[in-house]
């Protein structure tokens, strides 16, 4: 799928094959794929980038102005999980699947439930913190409740100090989320 530029948005797409705009400080993006389209806005002092994370399958990544996706001490990204087995999307089921996988891969993984957050369009975003992975990272993941997909907004950090410092930006990023449509036709 090839996104197109819609001014003033820099487009970012979870399933994009290409993109027209790489970095936009404080910019916003429309993230779309099968059965979903939503907007999200970089917090003040952060950049939205739809090129830097492509090698990892991430088409909307965020880092502080003056840093980079590769070298940022704390970075954020969005991703989506489609519903499985034809069931309606359930963020708690996706979280449970993620948790089992993470703990199986890293038995020392620590998972802590945090208070849920509200998105711009008044959806619930269930939040968990993950730490203790072998790579030493600290993560906050917000799983948004939608019917056709489960958007995940992730903060990941190399240090606990950088993680704590980035949490207000993470909350702002989650708060900027707004679902547009589940009726998305993808180019062939």
């Amino acid at each position: 799928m090839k996104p197109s530029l819609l001014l003033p948005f820099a487009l970012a797409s979870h399933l994009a094959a290409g993109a027209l705009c790489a970095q936009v400080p404080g910019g916003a993006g429309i993230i779309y794929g099968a059965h979903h389209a939503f907007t999200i806005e970089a917090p003040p002092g952060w950049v939205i980038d739809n090129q830097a994370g492509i090698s990892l399958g991430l088409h909307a990544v965020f880092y502080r102005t003056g840093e980079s996706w590769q070298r940022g001490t704390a970075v954020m990204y969005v991703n989506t999980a489609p519903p499985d087995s034809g069931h309606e999307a359930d963020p708690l089921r996706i979280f449970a699947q993620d948790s089992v996988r993470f703990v199986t891969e890293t038995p020392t993984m620590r998972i802590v439930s945090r208070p849920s957050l509200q998105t711009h369009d008044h959806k619930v975003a269930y939040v968990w913190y993950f730490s203790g992975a072998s790579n030493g990272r600290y993560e906050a993941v917000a799983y948004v409740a939608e019917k056709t997909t489960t958007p995940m907004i992730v903060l990941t950090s190399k240090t606990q100090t950088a993680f704590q410092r980035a949490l207000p930006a993470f909350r702002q990023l989650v708060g900027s989320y707004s679902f547009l449509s589940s009726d998305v036709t993808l180019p062939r």
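Confidence is low (pLDDT under 50) at residues 1-21. The helical segments are 91-105, 160-176.
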